[in-house]
From TrEMBL:
SUPFAM superfamilies according to UniProt: Thiamin diphosphate-binding fold (THDP-binding)
Complexes and interactors: Homodimer.
Protein name stated in the entry: 1-deoxy-D-xylulose 5-phosphate synthase
InterPro entries (alphabetical): Dxylulose-5-P_synthase (IPR005477), THDP-binding (IPR029061)
The entry's keywords: Magnesium, Thiamine pyrophosphate, Transferase
GO MF term list: 1-deoxy-D-xylulose-5-phosphate synthase activity
Amino acid sequence: HDWIESSHASTALSYAHGLSVALQQRRELIGHGGQRHVVAVVGDGSLTGGMAFEALNNLGHSNQRVVIVLNDNGRSYAPTISKLSESLTALRLNTRYLSWRQRLRRLVPHLPSLGRAAYTSVDVMTSVVREMVTPHTFFEMLGVRYVGPVDGHNIEALEHAL
């Protein structure tokens, strides 16, 4: 359940870090077999605030058990203005990347004797291209392990990622 309610989205990661430290000090993380995590669900708009970047930096170097779910839906109460949200939006709307991916996905399954394996390779190749133009390395450089993107409407994939 929600432990914290705040009107400013950029604070969620700092709260999550602090809560994780508090639970560790109370031995609640250890007392649950070391399996308890704090989860912060944040929107892409919340990553435009400096406090979120400070929290990401702290989380990445503290080894706290915090799961960050980034809801990258390109929506916010006000327009998001940042290079991070711009790059996420640019990938979503990049027609060259999208048409290249669609063309490969349409053609590859029909290749003789390669079909299925080649189709899997297309997913790997598109992931590589996507990672070259997304802020994936941004999170990794802060010490935060990045998994994704994951389709939030695909419950099985979401459960697997979490």
